[in-house]
Amino acid sequence: MFVRLALGVFFTLNLMALSWFFYARDLYFPDAAGASGAIAGLFSALGLLLTTLVVATLGVPLVAAWSRSRERRLDRFTLILLGVGAAYVVSVLRVVRGEGHLYFDAVALILVLVTLGSWVEATAKRRAAGAALERLSLLPVVAWVRRGDDVLEVREDELRVGDVVRVRASENVAVDGGVADGAAHVDEAALTGEPRPRAIAVGDTVLAGSLCLDGTLWVVAKSVGPARAAERMREALARARERKPRVQRAADRAAALFVPGVVVLALVVFATHAFAGDAARGLFDALAVLLVSCPCALGIAAPLATSAALERAARMGVVIDSAETLERAAAIDTVFFDKTGTLTERRLRLTAIDSAPDVPLERALAWAAALEAASVHPIADALVAAARARNLVVPKVDAARVLPGRGVTGEIDGRCLTLGSQALARERFGEAGDVETPVLIVQLMDRDRVLARFSLEERLRESARPAVAALTDVGVRARVVSGDGSRARVLDALGIPVAGGLLPDEKLALLQRERCARRVVAMVGDGLNDAPILAAADVGFALASGTDLARSAGNVRLISDDLGRVPETLALARRTMRVIQVNLGWAFGYNLIAVALAARGSLTPVIAALVMLFSSLFVLHNSGRAGRPLEPALGRR
Amino acid sequence: MIGAVALGSMFAAGVAGSLHCIGMCGPILAALTASVDSPERGRVGTWLSLASYHGGRIWTYAVLGLLAGALGDGAQRSVVLGRPLAVAMAAILSLSGVLLLTNRLGRWFSAPSCGGALAVVRPWLRRGAALRVVAGGLMGLIPCGLVYAMLVAVAALRDPLSGALGMAAFGLGTVPSLSAVVLGGRIGSPLLRAYGPRVVGVALIVMGAWLGFRVVTAPVGGGVAEASCHDAGGGAPLLDLTADRH
User: Fold this and answer.
1) What DSSP letter does each residue of A328-394 carry, written as one string?
2) Could you read off the pLDDT of B102-111 as tens digits, one per residue?
């Protein structure tokens, strides 16, 4: 488009130089008007040639693009093509007949301005998409993989899950995986938006695209190729851009009515003047009406702003699945947080084991670890890690089954054992008390009694308190919705209501109650049992460390576990909706005033085209605001 | 219509004047060299690349000549503007000559505007023939005393088509030496390169002075415009460039 635009501008400049002659002739050489008729003829012919070149360079592609479009519906290009086409045909006829008042300069200038507008729009969109490509460029095309005793260079598309990849200082990681050996600081800013390098060691997870700053890492590939987080993020971003928010769909419907209305109005303006005997004036004013009306501003009001905001979110390490989600996020007034693994760190520490006299502590722990071996819950991680630290032999479990929100059950040595929450124990054995314990307690039980209690300590995430405070500051209610019945002391620091011991269906019922009270609710969670409520909430935030099910259930996925991204995302969404409202207000207001002025003959076609360009540029510029970095006070303190 | 002698004179002025261009338009030529002179392009490709750039430049000169010719025609017919335009033309001719001798115009206008324009068009030189034509066309607008002097000369032809052809001939005249520089060659002896522009400068001063003298000594009244462009005695063209037009 740029080459065509440059050529079009060049031909138009030449045309303007020739047009100057006509104006100068009329102004300075009135006496010579008749004598310079031959020159006027030459200049008219050259004007026709240059305008035809501009029409071929800029106008024909507009027609081709319109005819290629599937719907071939009336849109802004229809208006422009109608106006420019009429002006061009009338001018050609006048050249042939040797009459004056040609519109060549208007035709060329309007085509240049319209193409310039499209080019500016396309450039803005390309820039918005650029950052995603930038992120992709961080993914190396080759990686060094351990094969036996050798380390071989392997192309990125030949990497397989399970490959052990070497990453040295100043290299980018090629796979998502776990660190098997080595330690280093990695820069994940491009993926998570976190500017501080993260220290990682054996057992930690690292994402493709991260930059290794020092040391050497050996990473076992868990995801390669398109399955990597960076690639999924790019795909999600592309999909999100395709879906329009409701407000844009409403604007599109308005624009669809607006265009035929403008065509009718232009015809009325032309007919009014033609019947009054001034068809030339009618053509001029009708042309101005067609050119000044700019549904383009309506058409780009929301997509550009949401595109910029989605891109900003991606830079912050937040992948939003659609513009609709962004729109809903702007209306959120209540945020539910899951506790374990969300407000608290995923890693729990086993602090005490209290077992029945006939059950040795180590056996109880081995059984508990065996039941949890297949689970990915933080409790499971803590118990399995404790058993491994004590070098316990973990027995085999038969018929293992997850009890959602309650625990796990299975058979060990022919004995049916269950590891579950206090609520489950209460349900089975009517045990009371211990609900308000400051630590998390899980209980190992058989069919008849509780065999052991495991006390686990959890720590509040560093980002939890500022995130909750930031939400409260902007009037968003935050509350904890947890399946864990213990009264965790760590949550006291947050100062928000806690609803504990809830089963997944009870969480859903709570969500429904909030909705009945006309509240718009977001859920932030990570676990398997959070998946239903993440899917049911108006907006579901899934943490990076969450289970795959939770991540697919959420419509906002965080690349890191930084809870500060939640208030930031809400702030971004609110700002985006404000930008869209200003854009739409401007576009509607502008069209009402500009079309009215053009219809009463107060605008020439060239001025109309300039005003239209200005309107589009305003919307473009304003939409850019949605993509600017957030002020620190908005999302984080 | 412009004759062969006049066209030849404009072409010669282009050849002589382009020695001045080599000094003035060094950065453009360097950028052009970097963009067209590559082994992958081949000889034909290099020449075509050069032709597209020069084509755009000559196009702009021709359009300017067209306007100058129309203006000359209008000035001849206008009772009001005839004498002032003739005086302005004489002044521009002489001033262009002086500036060519002292190189002032280059330092004041050409070099800064050349740098600004080059910053815009430099990437275009590598992006295909169409953009090179546009780049050449825009570079043709850079303030240049020599071009202005030539425009004054073609204005005296009082015919747009002749003006366009005359300026195109001038532009063509600048092509050989500029192309030679771009392709790494040299044109003319050191003596010619040093004194060529000075000769053109002196010639312009003489032409301007002669035109001024004619305008001042012409009878005031209906013959002003006539005197501005024609010999008061027999109607011979004032500037010798048009000697064979009748």
Assistant:
1) HHTT--EEEE-IIIIIB-S--EEEEEEE-TTS-HHHHHHHHHHHHTT--SHHHHHHHHHHHHTTPPP
2) 766 666 666 6
